TrEMBL record:
Forms part of the polypeptide exit tunnel. It comes from Actibacterium naphthalenivorans. This is Large ribosomal subunit protein uL4. Belongs to the universal ribosomal protein uL4 family. One of its GO terms (cellular component) is ribonucleoprotein complex. It comes from the Bacteria. Gene3D superfamilies: 3.40.1370.10. The keyword rRNA-binding applies. GO terms for biological process: translation.
Length: 206
């Protein structure tokens, strides 16, 4: 697959060959769904906690005698049946994460990249380098290119000036190639790869 390469000013910078085994797959929603669910579950804090009857702050005294009242038998007011009593079988701190094989995670990333290529939402730029960390200059270039919600993936390291300039631009995110992941790719309208980013991703996924 061949795609045009552009500069940040919109000028043509040649073409690049993209491997069909990474960018030319037929995207499968079931694979993407499984990888995104794995990512989001691993990111979930799992710190939810309720108080059980041993942790609520009522007295542990039996509220009335066992027999002769005409009412049900009760112990103390910490029981789950009472208002502000302990919660029965409520959530406790735990991990929501689950396992997913490395091979499947790689496949999911290939399908995410292919999905952007098929939808025409993949842009290749020559480099993501700036001489100065000027947010206004980068914002103007992004507006001229028509990127509204874009993710820029660079090579092994992101240019420091570019990262600083992009920090205050709403809807623009920058990642090194090692941080490329299915969830971040799919939730943006435009995926922007540098030539170094393409090389790094192909080396990582082959």
């Amino acid at each position: 697959m061949k795609l045009e390469v552009i500069n940040l000013d919109g000028g043509n910078a040649g073409t690049v060959d993209l491997g069909d085994e990474i960018f030319g797959l037929e995207p499968r929603a079931d694979i993407l769904h499984r990888v995104v669910r794995w990512q989001r579950n691993n990111a979930q804090a799992g710190t939810h906690k309720v108080k059980t009857r041993s942790e609520t702050s009522y007295s542990t005294k039996k509220i009335y005698r066992q027999k002769g009242t005409g009412g049900a038998r009760h112990g103390d007011r910490n029981a789950p049946i009472f208002r502000k009593g302990g919660i029965y079988k409520g959530p406790t701190p735990r991990s929501h994460g689950h396992e997913l094989t490395k091979k499947f995670r790689k496949l999911g990333l290939c399908h995410a990249l292919s999905a952007k290529a098929v939808a025409g939402e993949l842009v290749i730029i020559d480099t993501a380098d700036l001489a100065e960390a000027k947010t206004s200059a980068l914002a103007k270039a992004v507006k001229n290119l028509g990127w509204k919600r874009a993710l820029v993936i660079d090579g092994a390291q992101v240019n420091e000036n570019f990262a600083k300039a992009a920090r205050n631009i709403e809807g623009l995110d920058v990642l090194p190639s090692v941080g490329a992941n299915v969830y971040d790719i799919l939730k943006r309208d435009t995926l922007v790869l540098t030539k170094a980013g393409v090389e790094a991703l192909e080396a990582r996924l082959k």
